[in-house]
Fold:
Amino acid sequence: MKTVTTLEELFQARSELPSPVGLVPTMGFLHEGHLILMRQAKQTCASVVVSIFVNPTQFGPGEDLESYPRDIEHDLALLEHLGVDLVWLPTPEVMYPPNYQTWVEVSDVTQPLEGSFRPGHFRGVTTVVSKLFNAVRPDVAVFGQKDAQQVAVVKQMTRDLSYPIKIDVVPIVREGDGLALSSRNTYLKKPQRKAATVLYKSLRKAEAAYLEGERRADAIRRIMTDTIAEEPLASVQYVSCADLDTLQELEMITSKALLSMAVYVGQTRLIDNWILQP
Ligand code: AMP
Structure:
């Protein structure tokens, strides 16, 4: 496994990789939810590139950029064990050199949900993902369904900017009690960790109602809100029952719907989602 930092090193190492090349972009502090993306890439590609970069431009003021968990040594050991070919660890200066001026923005699909509570977040995401695509030139890029809106936004950008890259999406990896794996779960103290299962609980309750025939999106949203309200350590930022492609809120569920939410457990903001199949 090769580890590189500068663009020159990356271009050299990339040119030596057999095709097809798969890319897995991450912010590090790797867990099983990341590793499954790399296994997926290994299955379909001859070479796998992983990037680890805590991208400052996708964090808003007051968000956890400084405290975001980092453990590069451990990450590299996991990646080596997995048989990843190339790891790119750009510094902020490599990604955003002095006098940096160029941004990639996707319009409609970035507006609701995460976009409405984290202004500028997706501009940071699409800019950095587009820079990763340009530098690595992968044939396939693998993302997790955990960040459902990110998947929709990246797919839109890939189409709109004509990137010849296949976007693969991997289902959410969860703990035994349903909590979606996330680097941010390390922020949770013991009682909060227990309370955090309420996100999954609310998704399952909503799905159960759907399977019993409930099709009113409002009623589905209320089930999720009410379930979360029963957990004193949790407070809802948003719950959504939206069209899976446009992410616009639904009145009636008539096609694939995305249930999603952002919930604070203490100071920690957690997201989760579930797809309702017709
Ligand atoms: P991050 O390091 O949080 O930026 O995540 C890097 C990639 O891993 C993104 O595509 C995430 O959606 C994906 N990911 C993170 N957690 C999970 C999980 N629990 N299950 C599936 N994919 C995940």
